[in-house]
């Protein structure tokens, strides 16, 4: 019997999470739980106006209030900043990037900071913040992305002379045929509401200064490594003097993938005052001070032959940047730029993005970032095209699927693997479409108020950010590699150090599964360390569904190096050639002499003792690998939503949601399903509930959890999930990303279902979110 | 300042509180019980849910002085003798938590729901947890966990 048969693989097993014990017993290490002796509480005084000049500011009353240690205005701190707040993605050479500092004397959005108060307690700091007197001169504000470029619209940055930030294009002209000459052309215009991420843990930072100019920054962040680099650069301090720790982090969804004013203020003021400085965001503050997502207007065109062969796609997008460019704000549309043909073989490809400034909270990455925006317009327009052609919606999709892989797509990238037909077939198996159609027909005939609709979304996406050379070619400032270290301790336990930075994704468990399989050891022997730049020296953190397809794969290459070194040690000790050793599941055996064997763990002890190593070999058994992926990761799948719409009230409720996803090899099905559940929920919520709205002056109307509907369990059904599995040939694990698939796929499935429920009443379009009011109005207008 | 006495997780505390101090900050900052989290300022998210006299309450909606004389259980007081409470165990077994920030409140709300006999089916559980928001799990596994824990607790009682 071979070693392979003796041991069950951890990869693929629903291993329960090792993270849970701490979190379930209330011992999480979230930043706000920490309070070193002498910590000062920081409160930021924010602009109530979307666009206003500070004519004068008086800090005197605040400075003399109880418990107050210091109060600063923008002018007081201007010399602390060696650079403006960072934007890492200048998408075009001439992109406009107006400088933005942690405090300002011209507010460009509601929530822009103008002063900061430090006091001994949170209550004293808040009391004193109310004593800061600002004499404001309100200025005209631009709020609406759709009209921001029209003549006469107020300018977010009058110095620029325009609200245009950049224009970026990607065109192919594969067949030379103009889009307007196609037999059937369907163009639709869509608005994708501004979304407010709402990680349940608001942001928080704690900066603890040392005696020699060093600072430890504890931050509720997804990106400890990037944050260290950019905080140090912005403050002009040595990176070596800054340690960033991401302890337990309570969700991110992109909103903690940024360098924020409060990060910089906390570090600068901790150094200045020589005391720990802590800032914890309040939820209402989070609504204005943490990035938003989406806020795109898109005109999308599909052109086809009369038999339903799609020949062209074209997207013209106007994307709100908000008031300033945050870390990757201008790049968000580009993250979808190559997938505006979806999973379909469409030769002629054209996208154009126009970024515009508005006097609103900056936008940036929110779960899916650029790809939900693409998938939404594609899948809505696929339904519209099917109607125009008189074709079945499912068959139009099937007919146009990319069917052979690897596939070089119209936008120029190559999809490594997939099987969209298999996902769709499996979806239809689960759905029982005939029964649903029969029920729908019955209800339509009865004419009652509860109508049924079925909506589809077949999708693919590109994630796993990302090949560094491609990032360089599209002007992103950094690379997309990830690093892993595997270190044997003398007793045979294994330390794994990863550059990824989980905040709910369960890397401690999944990474242990991968490494235990590679090294053939017990999973409990593997400890996974992350989220502290003094432990994990190099990494590029967690976002863009990159952790597994980049960081997880790096573990395999580190394990290969460990095994290679162990092989040399074992060969030396057993006095055989390294080529004569077979390796499986943690044990080397000598070819032809299966009784002669030695484990990797035994080699680790030999490497530690170092009594008898090959000449010139360094003691110790550890290795570091840095993996730069050669391609993006390409998940895909087929989703369907079944909704019931009350035609009298406009209330749309999900009855069923069926999701078939293909994310390559599954490391931990429990965790993968959890990611899909959460992702789908955010997509459903986009379709039915969430919308950040401003009034015409730029005051946020949906400024807390009372007025912005984050759904509870009561709004949602249980989900029906299944998978198909096309291994990625790009990496040795065969894995793909999974963190964003649900959010990318779900919104169009739900809206298509709502429209399907009321199409017989003449309704052609409903803007997201399909609130009862919008659905009811659409029905009334169709009747009129 | 008002002098109050609270019993938290079986330990009696006498404290002088400012009348404006919210119970959640008394627990977190005075007593160091940081398991109870603050997720909002509008009593919407439920992250701060604790049991007060056996009833689930959002500890951000109560002043510390209002809890004078009360018996309070927080997430730290739920597991006994190193054994997870059936609700905690069910959350672990069903992967009903990801980032864990809503989890203490969600678990306390679920304990209350089950103890009141209101976790009768999926619809009742979903409605019963309406005051607790989770942004990671989509609630699917939370509902499964509460169903499982309700069964275990019913058999035990």
Description:
The complex is a heterodimer of chains A (about 775) and B (about 160). Chain A contains 19 helices and 28 strands. Chain A is α+β, with helices and mostly antiparallel strands. In chain A, the strands form seven sheets. In chain A, strands 3-5-1-12-9-10-11 form a seven-stranded mixed sheet, with helices on both faces. Chain A has a five-stranded mixed sheet with strand order 7-15-14-13-8. In chain A, a hairpin with a 5-residue loop joins strand 13 and strand 14 (about 310-320). The longest helix of chain A has 28 residues, at about 545-575. With about 160 residues, chain B is of the alpha+beta class. Chain B is about 35% helix and about 15% strand. Chain B is built from five helices and five strands, in the order ββαβββαααα. In chain B, strand 1 and strand 2 form a beta hairpin. The termini of chain B are far apart.
Topology:
The complex is a heterodimer of chains A (784) and B (157).
Chain A: H1 3-6, H2 20-24, E1 40-46, E2 52-58, H3 60-63, E3 68-73, H4 74-77, E4 106-107, E5 113-119, H5 122-129, E6 133-138, E7 164-171, E8 184-195, E9 204-209, E10 215-219, H6 224-235, E11 242-245, H7 261-273, E12 277-280, H8 283-289, E13 293-304, E14 310-322, E15 348-357, H9 371-389, H10 393-400, E16 407-408, E17 414-415, H11 420-431, H12 433-446, E18 450-460, H13 468-473, E19 482-488, E20 494-498, H14 507-519, E21 526-529, H15 547-574, E22 581-584, E23 587-590, E24 593-599, H16 600-609, E25 622-627, E26 636-646, E27 652-662, H17 669-688, E28 720-724, H18 741-758, H19 772-783
Parallel strand pairs in A: 1-12, 10-11, 14-15, 20-21, 27-28
Antiparallel strand pairs in A: 1-5, 2-4, 2-6, 3-5, 7-15, 8-13, 9-10, 9-12, 13-14, 16-17, 18-26, 19-20, 19-25, 22-23, 23-24, 26-27
Helix pairs in contact in A: 9-18, 14-15, 15-16, 17-18
Chain B: E1 2-8, E2 11-17, H1 23-30, E3 49-52, E4 55-58, E5 71-73, H2 86-93, H3 103-115, H4 122-128, H5 140-156
Parallel strand pairs in B: 1-5
Antiparallel strand pairs in B: 1-2, 3-4, 3-5
């Amino acid at each position: 019997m071979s070693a392979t048969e003796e041991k069950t693989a951890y990869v693929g097993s629903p291993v329960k999470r090792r993270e849970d014990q701490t979190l379930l017993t209330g011992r999480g290490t979230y930043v706000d739980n920490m309070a070193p002796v002498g910590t000062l509480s920081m409160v930021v005084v924010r602009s109530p106006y979307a666009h206003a000049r500070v004519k004068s500011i008086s800090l005197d009353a605040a400075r003399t209030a109880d418990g107050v240690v210091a109060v600063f205005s923008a002018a007081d701190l201007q010399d602390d900043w060696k650079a403006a707040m960072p934007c890492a993605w200048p998408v075009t050479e001439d992109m406009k990037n107006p400088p933005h500092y942690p405090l300002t004397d011209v507010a460009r959005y509601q929530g822009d900071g103008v002063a900061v108060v430090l006091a001994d307690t949170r209550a004293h700091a808040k009391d004193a913040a109310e004593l800061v007197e600002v004499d404001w001169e309100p200025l005209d504000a631009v709020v609406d992305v759709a009209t921001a470029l029209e003549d006469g619209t107020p300018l977010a940055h009058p110095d620029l002379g325009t609200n245009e930030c950049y224009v970026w294009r990607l065109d192919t002209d594969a067949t030379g045929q103009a889009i307007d000459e196609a037999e059937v052309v369907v163009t639709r215009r869509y608005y994708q509401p501004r979304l407010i991420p709402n990680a349940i843990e608001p942001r928080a930072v704690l900066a603890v200064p040392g005696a020699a100019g060093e600072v430890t920054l504890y931050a509720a962040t997804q990106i400890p490594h990037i944050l260290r680099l950019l905080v140090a650069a912005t403050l002009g301090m040595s990176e070596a003097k800054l340690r960033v720790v991401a302890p337990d982090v309570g969700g991110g969804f992109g909103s903690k993938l940024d360098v924020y004013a409060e990060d910089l203020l906390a570090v600068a003021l901790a150094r200045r005052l020589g005391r720990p400085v802590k800032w914890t965001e309040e939820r209402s503050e989070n609504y204005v001070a943490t990035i938003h997502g989406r806020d795109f207007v898109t005109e999308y065109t599909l052109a086809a032959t009369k038999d339903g062969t799609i020949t062209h796609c074209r997207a013209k997008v106007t994307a709100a940047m908000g008031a300033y460019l945050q870390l990757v704000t201008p790049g968000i549309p580009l993250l979808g730029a190559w997938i505006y043909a979806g999973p379909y073989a469409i030769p002629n490809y054209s996208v154009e993005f126009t970024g515009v400034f508005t006097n609103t909270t900056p936008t940036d990455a929110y779960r899916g970032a650029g790809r939900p925006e693409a998938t939404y317009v594609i899948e809505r327009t696929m339904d519209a095209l099917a109607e125009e052609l008189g074709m079945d919606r499912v068959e139009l999709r099937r007919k146009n699927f990319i069917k052979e892989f690897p596939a070089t797509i119209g936008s120029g990238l190559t999809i490594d693997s997939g099987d969209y037909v298999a996902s769709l077939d499996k979806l239809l198996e689960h759905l029982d479409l005939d029964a649903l159609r029969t029920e729908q027909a019955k209800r339509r005939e009865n004419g009652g108020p509860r109508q049924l609709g079925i909506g589809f979304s077949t999708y693919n996406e590109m994630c796993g950010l990302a090949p560094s050379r491609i990032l360089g070619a599209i002007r992103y400032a950094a690379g997309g590699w990830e690093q892993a270290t595997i270190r044997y301790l003398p007793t045979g336990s294994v330390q794994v150090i990863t550059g990824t930075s989980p905040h709910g994704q369960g890397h401690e468990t999944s990474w242990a599964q991968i490494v235990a399989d590679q090294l053939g050891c017990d999973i409990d022997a593997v400890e996974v360390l992350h989220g502290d730049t003094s432990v994990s020296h190099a990494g590029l953190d967690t976002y863009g569904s990159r952790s597994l397809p980049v960081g997880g794969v790096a573990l395999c290459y580190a394990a290969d190096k460990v095994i290679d070194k162990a092989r040399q040690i074992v060969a030396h000790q057993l006095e055989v050639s390294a080529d004569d050793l077979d390796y499986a599941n943690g044990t080397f055996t000598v070819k032809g002499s299966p009784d002669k064997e030695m484990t990797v763990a035994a080699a680790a002890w030999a490497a530690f003792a170092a009594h008898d190593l090959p000449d010139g070999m360094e003691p110790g058994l550890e290795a570091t690998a840095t993996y730069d992926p050669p391609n993006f990761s390409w998940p895909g799948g087929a989703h369907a939503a079944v909704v019931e719409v009350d035609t009298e009230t406009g209330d749309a409720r999900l009855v069923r949601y069926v999701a078939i996803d293909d994310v390559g090899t599954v490391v931990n099905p429990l965790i993968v399903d959890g990611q899909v559940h959460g992702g789908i929920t955010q997509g459903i919520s986009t379709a039915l509930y969430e919308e950040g709205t401003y009034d015409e002056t730029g005051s946020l109307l949906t400024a807390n959890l009372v007025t912005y509907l984050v759904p509870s369990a009561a709004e949602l059904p249980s989900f029906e999930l299944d998978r198909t599995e096309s291994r990625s040939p790009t990496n040795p694990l065969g894995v793909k990303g999974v963190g964003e698939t649900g959010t990318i796929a779900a919104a169009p499935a739900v809206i298509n279902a709502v429209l399907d429920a009321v199409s017989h009443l003449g309704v052609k379009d409903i803007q997201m979110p399909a609130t009862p009011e919008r659905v009811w109005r659409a029905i009334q207008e169709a009747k009129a | 300042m008002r002098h109050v006495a609270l019993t938290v997780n079986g330990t009696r505390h006498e404290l002088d509180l400012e009348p404006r101090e919210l119970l959640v900050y008394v627990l977190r900052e005075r007593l160091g019980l940081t398991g109870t989290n603050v997720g909002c300022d509008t009593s919407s998210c439920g992250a701060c849910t604790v049991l007060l006299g056996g009833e689930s309450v959002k500890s951000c909606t109560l002043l510390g002085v209002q809890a004078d004389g009360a018996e309070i259980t927080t997430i730290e007081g739920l597991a006994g003798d190193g054994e997870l409470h059936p609700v905690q165990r069910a959350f672990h077994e069903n992967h009903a938590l990801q980032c864990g920030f809503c989890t203490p409140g969600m678990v306390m709300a679920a304990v209350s729901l089950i103890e009141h006999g209101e976790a009768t089916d999926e619809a009742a559980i979903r409605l019963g947890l309406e005051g607790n928001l989770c942004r990671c799990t989509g609630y699917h596994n939370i509902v499964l966990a509460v169903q499982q824990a309700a069964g275990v607790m019913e058999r035990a009682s």
